[in-house]
């Protein structure tokens, strides 16, 4: 099931644990566990051996999801929490995954979700900062390019922001890139990993196909179509669901892949590398202080942020188009918190 875990390692690396002792298992909270992503994500995290306790919170439906998922015969324990029990849900959480918020309908951009989701994410971040200030926070709620800066500013206001512990989950772009490239080349997606950098919406999604052993052979119109499909893959699902939401199942899978990578790194596995949207120095001089690139994860969260490497002329043009849009999205998120 987890072939994409390998795909997330942009360069094949030898995984190795520091110690031979049993891994420390981690308490994980899901905020928005009753939703389209939250439900399958909760199930997948129930079968993740590195999770010890699963804390499921939503403003509606989480106790039911928890009761259901808790019957799965794995070692972890599961508790569901009602709308008024957010603080209890967060107590002792070491990893908090947030898919709370509304999804798109056809014709909407992710930025159109800002007015609803910004305050949802800010309020949840405030609670995490108060109750579980050292938790690693994984943001799924859109628009990711703005919600991640919202969380950063909210935690900074509370005096508990540590950039090593905040991640925008862009793994679905990586998963899509591998899958869509495999449809062009005929290879197994597990052997066609693609690093995707930038942000998580339209032109800010920049797949670096020239750095992929199979991707570099794709040229011309086939390349443009492939890049466009990776950048706008979310629209395919929104259109097919026809008003009933956006990607949920592939997103739950992608979030589980990223959570697993982080849990392995927390447990001391070395060379766990994947793209994620973090506070980043790479384009700070151009006013873009959050950016997704390959990041090595470690016990404290972000360990090393890797530069984006050599680009083709086409990719440089994509980066040039990405940066102004990303800057605008980031500033919008920061202003939302700081204007309040
Ligand atoms: P959904 O409507 O099915 O579920 C959202 C859930 O959030 C609901 O159960 C709702 O009750 C809950 N919720 C709302 N306010 C809350 C609050 N204050 N506290 C806790 N829970 C709250 O939506 P979905 O399809 O699961 O999508 C969720 C979000 O994820 C959307 O913003 C969507 O755009 C985003 N998304 C991101 C990616 C990505 O790649 N990062 C991919 C797919 C979807
Ligand atoms: C996706 O990429 O599928 C998500 O960001 C959801 C969306 O709105 O497209």
Account of the 3D structure:
Its EC number is 1.1.1.37. This is Malate dehydrogenase. It catalyses: (S)-malate + NAD(+) = oxaloacetate + NADH + H(+). The protein is an alpha/beta fold. It folds into 2 domains: 157 residues, NAD(P)-binding Rossmann-like Domain (Rossmann fold, 3-Layer(aba) Sandwich); 165 residues, Lactate dehydrogenase/glycoside hydrolase, family 4, C-terminal (L-2-Hydroxyisocaproate Dehydrogenase, Chain A, domain 2), CATH 3.90.110.10. It is built from 11 helices and 11 strands. The strands form 3 sheets. It has a 6-stranded parallel sheet with strand order 3-2-1-4-5-6, sandwiched between helices. A 3-stranded antiparallel sheet has the order 9-10-11. The chain has a two-stranded antiparallel sheet with strand order 7-8. Helix 2 links the parallel strand 1 and strand 2. It is globular, with a radius of gyration of 19 Å. The structure holds nicotinamide-adenine-dinucleotide (NAD) and (2S)-2-hydroxybutanedioic acid. The site of (2S)-2-hydroxybutanedioic acid (LMR) has 10 residues, from helix 9.
């Amino acid at each position: 099931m987890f072939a994409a875990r390998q795909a997330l390692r942009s360069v094949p690396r030898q995984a190795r644990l520091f110690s031979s002792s049993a891994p420390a298992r981690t308490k994980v909270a899901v905020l928005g566990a009753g939703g389209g992503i939250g439900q399958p994500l909760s199930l997948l995290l129930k079968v993740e051996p590195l999770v010890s306790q699963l804390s499921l919170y939503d403003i509606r439906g989480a106790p039911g999801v928890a009761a259901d998922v808790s019957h799965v015969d794995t070692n972890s324990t599961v508790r569901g929490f009602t709308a008024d029990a957010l603080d209890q849900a967060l107590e002792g959480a070491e990893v908090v995954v947030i898919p709370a918020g509304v999804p798109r309908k056809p014709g909407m951009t992710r930025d159109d979700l800002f007015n609803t989701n910004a305050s949802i994410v800010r309020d949840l971040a405030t609670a995490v900062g108060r109750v579980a200030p050292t938790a690693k926070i994984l943001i799924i709620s859109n628009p990711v390019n703005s919600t991640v800066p919202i969380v950063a500013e909210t935690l900074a206001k509370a005096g508990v922001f540590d950039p090593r512990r905040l991640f925008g989950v862009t793994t679905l772009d990586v998963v899509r890139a591998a899958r869509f490239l495999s449809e062009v080349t005929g290879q197994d997606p597990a052997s066609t990993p693609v690093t995707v950098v930038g942000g998580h919406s339209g032109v800010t999604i920049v797949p670096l196909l020239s750095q992929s052993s199979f991707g570099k052979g794709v040229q011309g119109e086939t390349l443009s179509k492939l890049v466009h499909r990776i950048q706008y893959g979310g629209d395919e699902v929104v259109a097919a669901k026809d008003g009933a939401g956006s990607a949920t199942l592939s997103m739950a899978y992608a979030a589980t892949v990223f959570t697993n990578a982080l849990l392995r790194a927390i447990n001391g596995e070395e060379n766990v590398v994947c793209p994620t949207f973090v506070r980043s120095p790479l384009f700070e001089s151009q006013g873009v202080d959050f950016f997704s690139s390959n990041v090595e994860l470690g016990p404290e969260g972000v360990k090393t942020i890797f530069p984006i490497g050599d680009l083709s002329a086409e990719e440089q043009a994509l980066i040039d188009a990405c940066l102004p849009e990303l800057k605008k999205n980031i500033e919008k998120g920061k202003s939302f918190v700081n204007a309040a």
